[in-house]
Amino acid sequence: MASLLHLPADDSVLLVVTHSNIKSFSPEIRFSLQMSVEAVKEKLWRKCGTAVESMLLELHDDAGSKIADLSDNLRPLGFYSPQDRFVSSPLLARYVYRLHIIDLDPSSVTSGGWLEDTSLVEKYTISEEAYSKLDSNFRKFKEKMISQNPTHDKK
C-alpha cells in the first residue's frame, strides 16, 4: 500500500560561500533553487556586507574550476544547476559547488582587511593623567569597593 504522505523533493542546495576580501568567511548556506540571482545576492549581503550592486558571483565545482558567472540577476539559481553533495555514497558526501563573492567596490567595508585584521584598527588610548582626572573610572570604583569591604582579600 502506498504511503499517504508525499514529501516534495527538496528544491534547495547547500553551498560553501567564499569572499574575495574576507579570507575567514566560508560559511555553508542553504539556497532555494527557485531564488533569483538577485535574491541570492541580497541574502549574501546580509551575511558578508558586500552591497548587492557591487557583488559578482562565481559558481565553482569541487575541483575549483569556475562553472559560471552568475551575471543575470533575473535567472533562478537552479538555472546554473549547482550541486551540494555526491549522491553515490552518503557516508563520503561532501560539498561539490562553491559560490565565490567578488566585491567590485574598492571602498567597500570588506576591502583592506578591516574586518579581519584588528591591528589595522586604531585603538583608543588615554594618558594616565587624563584617566586619573575622570570623575568615574575603574580604579576609583575598585578603591570604593575595597573601602566598603576592608576584609575582602586584596589580589
TrEMBL record:
Transmembrane segments: none annotated. InterPro entries: TBCB_Ubl (IPR045172), Ubiquitin-like_dom (IPR000626), Ubiquitin-like_domsf (IPR029071). It comes from the Eukaryota. Gene3D superfamilies: Phosphatidylinositol 3-kinase Catalytic Subunit, Chain A, domain 1. Residues 13-108 form the Ubiquitin-like domain. One of its GO terms (molecular function) is alpha-tubulin binding. One of its GO terms (biological process) is post-chaperonin tubulin folding pathway. This is Tubulin-folding cofactor B. It comes from Ananas comosus.
